[in-house]
Every structure is written in structure tokens, then in C-alpha cells.
């Protein structure tokens, strides 16, 4: 029994980082796409915007959050939903290399508070994210107002975003098969927004080449 439980836990630990890998890969492409068009897009002055690019990669940063935050895997999907809502409601603040880290730590913090029964406080998340507690508090408030306090995520919306991450996994694992299928070119529609509107039909149109 103990051996079976250990095996189950090992499988869960192996499955969860895949979410981190695919989400970081998607956000990396979004950030790079918006970095290239940064000179031509109006930029909003924001607490999320750093003066320089953080030295830690998006993937390593997400792995660090996953390792120390101990929040449920669902939190990362919901954080993804929140990021998309935020950039759709704040079109002058596209995700780029200068703000993605602060947006990530804040979105996970907010999703953990909304989704999980037990979660760490802001001071702890600040240490995980490499920022001060005062800045973490400020970012949380800005993020909530930027979302218009729209924190509820329906099962249908959750499933839609999970499906998009599954497509991201499929694209990475089956590049040859991907060439024979309609391309999911997320770079072009993501110049400003993170991924897609929550309406499934709109989502499919945006992903179409």
C-alpha cells in the first residue's frame, strides 16, 4: 500500500511540472512577440513594468513558484485565465519580458487565495518572487482592479484553457504531426493579448491561421 501511494505521488509530481513547462513556453513566445513590437505599441506606466529584464527565465521562475508556493495545479490554470483577462482589460499593458515575472507571481497569488483552502501570505509570496512585501501588496491590488475583481472561473472556461495548454503540449511533442495539421499560430493574435477570449467560438477563430 505504501509503495502504491509513493508511485501515485511520483506520477503526480511528474505530471504537474508539464503544466509549468507548457505555460512557460506559451508565455515566453507571447513576451518575445510583444517585445519585438514594443516600440510601436502604446505602453502604460505600471507597477508591473520593470526597468530591466529579470535574469531568471520565465520557465525557471514558474518552476520556483511551483516548488515553494505549494498551491494546487489548478491554480496555474486559473492564473493563466486571470492573465488573459487582465491583458484583455488592459490592452496598453501587453505581456512582455519586463512585466511577465511580476504578473506571474501576482496571478498565482490571487488564484491560490481564490482556489485553495490553505495558502501562504503575501510576505511569503514576496520572498518566492524576489520582491518586497510592500510591492507584492501593491501588485495584488493593481491586479485585482485591473481584473475588475472578476475572479470567478466557470468549469467551461477552465476546460477551454486546459484544452489550449494541451494543444501547446501537442505542438511541442509532435512537431512533425503539427506540420500536417492546421497551424495554431499564437504569435500573431497575441501581439497585445495573452491568448484568447473566453468564448469558445471566438477562441477557435483567433487560433485559426
The major beta sheet can be summarized as: none
Total count of helical runs of at least 4 residues: 9
Beta percentage is under 5%
First-last Cα distance: 50 Å
Helix content: 55-70%
| Series of H and E elements | HHHHHHHHH
Which of globular, elongated, flat, extended, rod-shaped describes the shape? globular
Supply Rg: 17 Å
Beta strands, count: 0
Which structural class do you get from the secondary structure elements?
A: mainly alpha
Uncertain spans? 1-16, 176-209
Quaternary state of the chains: single chain
Mean pLDDT: 75
What topology emerges from the helices and strands here?
Blueprint lengths: L1 H35 L21 H12 L3 H17 L10 H16 L6 H8 L3 H14 L8 H19 L1 H5 L20 H8 L2
Helix pairs in contact: 1-2, 1-3, 1-7, 2-4, 2-5, 3-4, 3-7, 4-5, 4-6, 5-6
Q: How would you explain this protein's 3D organization?
A:
By secondary structure, this protein is mostly helical. The protein has nine helices and no strands. It has helices spanning 2-36, 58-69, 73-89, 100-115, 122-129, 133-146, 155-173, 175-179, 200-207. Helix 1 (2-36) packs antiparallel against helix 2 and helix 4 packs across helix 6 (133-146). The longest helix is centred in the first third of the chain and has 35 residues, at 2-36. The protein is globular.
Amino acid at each position: 500500500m505504501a509503495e502504491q501511494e509513493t508511485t501515485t505521488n511520483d506520477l503526480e509530481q511528474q505530471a504537474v511540472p508539464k503544466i509549468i513547462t507548457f505555460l512557460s513556453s506559451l508565455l515566453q513566445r507571447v513576451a518575445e512577440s510583444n517585445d519585438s513590437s514594443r516600440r510601436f505599441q502604446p505602453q502604460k506606466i505600471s507597477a508591473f513594468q520593470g526597468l530591466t529584464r529579470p535574469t531568471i527565465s520565465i520557465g525557471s521562475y514558474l518552476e520556483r513558484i511551483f516548488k515553494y508556493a505549494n498551491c494546487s495545479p489548478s491554480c496555474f490554470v486559473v492564473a493563466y485565465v486571470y492573465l488573459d483577462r487582465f491583458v484583455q482589460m488592459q490592452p496598453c499593458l501587453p505581456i512582455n519580458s519586463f512585466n511577465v515575472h511580476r504578473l506571474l507571481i501576482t496571478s498565482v497569488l490571487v488564484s491560490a487565495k481564490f482556489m485553495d483552502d490553505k495558502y501562504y501570505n503575501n510576505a511569503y509570496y514576496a520572498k518566492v518572487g524576489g520582491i518586497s512585501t510592500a510591492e507584492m501588496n501593491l501588485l495584488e491590488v493593481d491586479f485585482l482592479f485591473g481584473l475588475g475583481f472578476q475572479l470567478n472561473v466557470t468549469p467551461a472556461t477552465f476546460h477551454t484553457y486546459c484544452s489550449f495548454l494541451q494543444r501547446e503540449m501537442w505542438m511541442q511533442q509532435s512537431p512533425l504531426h503539427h506540420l500536417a495539421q492546421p497551424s495554431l499560430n499564437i504569435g500573431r493574435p497575441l501581439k497585445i493579448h495573452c491568448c484568447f477570449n473566453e468564448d469558445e467560438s471566438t477562441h477557435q477563430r483567433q487560433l485559426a491561421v
